[in-house]
Structure formats: structure tokens, C-alpha cells
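Quick one, C-alpha cells below. Sequence please?
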């Protein structure tokens, strides 16, 4: 049986869960629940995420490289180990600064859909 999540009860080195793919954004689900999800993502140079808003708080942590996270028009440069919480309903986008990997955690509980 194939699963969308990584194997549970097994030690993982997060930065090694996902590889870079030329000219692509790659997403690997760590956990997916009705109350939120955790994903690890890799971005090739020049790849990012377009502007969006979400009704949920979102936590981003850079685990390799560097990226620019723009929240409601304010730019934040995050390097390996850096993290930020994007507030619910805030416009945001991710701009690359070379190749990078990040963990994206969305918390859905506590909000009306």
C-alpha cells in the first residue's frame, strides 16, 4: 500500500527526505491531517511560490539555503535554521535566493472554514 506520508516511528534526517529537481518545486508530505499538515519542500534556483492567502497560520522553516518570504508586502530573508509564522489571511509569497529547502506547517484547528 502506497502512502502520501513519510514512514512513522522511524528516524529521518529532514533535509535528506527530499532532493532537488531541475527547474522544479518538489513537495513531500510528512503528515496530513484534517487539523493541518507538515510538508518538506525543495526549490531549484529561480523557483518559488506565487502570492496567495490562506485562512490558516503557516509556519515556515528553512532547512537548507536561503529564501525571501514576503508577508503583506514586508520582506523577510531567512537562511538555514531561520523560521517565521505567516498569519492567517495575510498575503504572502516565497522568492528563492538560489536552491533551498524548507518545512511548511499549516495549522487548521481553531479556525472556522
Amino acid at each position: 500500500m502506497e502512502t502520501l506520508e513519510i514512514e512513522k516511528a522511524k528516524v529521518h534526517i529532514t533535509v535528506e527526505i527530499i532532493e532537488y529537481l531541475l527547474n522544479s518545486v518538489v513537495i513531500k508530505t510528512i503528515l496530513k491531517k484534517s487539523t493541518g499538515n507538515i510538508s518538506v519542500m525543495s526549490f531549484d534556483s529561480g523557483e518559488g511560490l506565487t502570492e496567495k492567502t490562506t485562512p490558516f497560520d503557516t509556519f515556515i522553516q528553512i532547512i537548507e539555503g536561503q529564501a525571501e518570504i514576503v508577508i503583506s508586502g514586508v520582506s523577510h530573508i531567512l537562511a538555514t535554521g531561520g523560521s517565521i509564522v505567516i498569519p492567517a489571511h495575510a498575503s504572502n509569497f516565497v522568492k528563492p535566493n538560489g536552491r533551498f529547502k524548507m518545512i511548511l506547517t499549516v495549522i487548521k484547528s481553531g479556525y472556522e472554514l
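The mean pLDDT is 91. The two ends are 31 Å apart (CA to CA).
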